[in-house]
Amino acid sequence: MQITKTQKLQNVRYDLRGPISDEADRLERTGASIIRLNTGNPAAFGFPAPPSVLDSLTAFADMAVPYSETKGLPIVRAAIAAYCNSIGLPGVGVDDIYTGNGVSEMIKLSLQALLNTGDEVLVPTPDYPLWTAATLLAGGKAVHYMCDEQSDWYPDIEDMKRKITPRTRAIVIINPNNPTGAVYPRELLQSIVELARMHELVLFSDEIYDRLLLDDAEHIPLASLAPDLFTVHFNGLSKSHQICGYRTGWMALCGDKSGAGGYIEGINTLASLRLCSNVTGQSVVPAALADNASVRANCVPGGRLYEQREYAYNALETIPGISVVKPRAGLYMFPKIDTDMYGITDDEMFVLDFLREKHVLLTHGRGYNWKRPDHFRMVYLPCMEELVQVMDRLRDFLAGYRQS
Q1: Which one, of 384, 358, 364, lies nearest residue 24 by Cα?
Q2: Which of 188, 199, 247, 390: disulfide with 101, CB 3.0–4.6 Å?
């Protein structure tokens, strides 16, 4: 008897932890030491959780024993609602907050509650691939709008306009962006809001990197520009407070909810089915949101994240055939490789060859629904010593590499 996977998974991919990561695991079992630049997991690279978070975890340990309310602990949702109000999100009260096992759970839940079979969602390319996968699993169709590398990876508004159809239900915005590190200006966000207003679309705004800003980047919450629209705002602590394993995320329903009663009922049903999110992770939210100093310390000149971004960017720019738009937020960069120079027709093979020869794990650009084989994503989380090794290995590898 052959047991096959469901057809719903036919086009679903998550290459951050896919076959190439499996190959890295295999190499490690043979004794190889792999530098893993495929996922944004700060604690794995020695970024500690802030003492405020760890102290809070100890102080509220008893609180985390029973189930919480479906949406989350009242004290936690109150802290998140206060944070949302402080950054200008309109119409957000305690009852509009849903805690989740990371933002990933909230993304899947929000799409499952909205989409009927064949409904379309505008998703950026490159994207964080969970958005595409979750759209497909909810029965929808991910329609990818272009982000323009020549314009600092900003979304192409004209391309978005062309791709809106009568089946379009929502627009996904990832700002600050993963994988490019772009931070979108006010005028661009206003143009996206106007599209949503014109076509009566839901706005899904993934803003989990809003506290990891570098240089003079200013983050403008999308919902703050659209009080008359319905916006779902996603955020969490995994990246900013280096606690990925706590799986602490949330979503906030913002703006005009007068026409969204049925959708909210669906969200409540799905939230109830999973009982509640991890209560241990919830318990640290108030202390974490009160501690922005620990986050900012890494992001200013002299801070570890800032200095590693500077080094990685400058080093990549010296490697023949590599170019990169300097990220202004987050943990990632999305370099471009000259495919003609290296004869590259398959970016997954390029990443796999580099892994096997130099024991560095990257993610190929097509894993982010980028259609051409000319990009890869890397985190700049390793300590400076390891980053120097990575750049030396990449330069040495490319010096002798030709795929075809």
Answers
A1: 358
A2: 247
pLDDT of 202-222, one tens digit each?
A: 999 999 999 999 998 999 999
Radius of gyration of the chain (CA): 21
For residues 203 and 351, the answer to whether their CB atoms sit within 8 Å is: no
At position 318, the amino acid (one-letter code) is: T
* Separation of alpha carbons 243 and 43, rounded Å: 7
Question: 347 and 274 in contact (C-beta within 8 Å)?
Answer: no
Phi-psi region of 202 (alpha: psi -120 to 50; beta: other; left: phi over 0): beta
Tokens of 40: 């944004």
CA dist., res. 318 & res. 322, Å (int) = 8
- Residue 294 Cα distances to 85, 214, 300, angstroms: 21, 14, 11
User: Cβ contacts of residue 76 below 8 Å, gap of 6+?
Assistant: 68, 99, 282, 283, 285, 286
Report the C-alpha dihedral over residues 340, 345, 351, 355, rounded to 10 degrees. -90
pLDDT digits (tens, 9 = 90+) for 308-346: 999 999 999 999 999 999 999 999 999 999 999 999 999
What mean pLDDT do residues 104-109 have? Answer: 93
Distance CA 398, CA 337 (A): 10
Closest CA to 331 of 13, 41, 11: 41
Token readout for 261 is 């009663």
Q: How far is CA 86 from CA 72, 187, 273, in A?
A: 20, 21, 31
The span from the CA of 55 to the CA of 288, in Å, is 10
Q: Collapsing DSSP states into helix, strand and coil, what is residue 83?
A: helix
Q: Which helix (H) or strand (E) holds 148?
A: strand 141-148
**Mode of pairing for the β-strands spanning 120-125 and 141-148:** parallel
Instruction: Retrieve residue 392's tokens.
Output: 């030396």
Asked if pLDDT for residue 16 goes beyond 70, the answer is no
Task: Please tell me the distance from the alpha carbon of residue 177 to that of residue 221, in angstroms, as a whole number.
Answer: 13
Q: Which amino acid is at 260?
A: A
Its pTM surpasses 0.70: yes
The neighbour count for residue 290, using CB atoms within 10 Å, is 13
Q: Please state the φ and ψ torsions of residue 209, each to the nearest 5 degrees.
A: -100, 20
Q: By CB neighbour count within 10 A (0-12 exposed, 13-18 middle, 19+ buried), where does 88 fall?
A: middle
DSSP state, 375? B
DSSP bridge partners of 368: none
Report the amino acid identity of residue 256: D
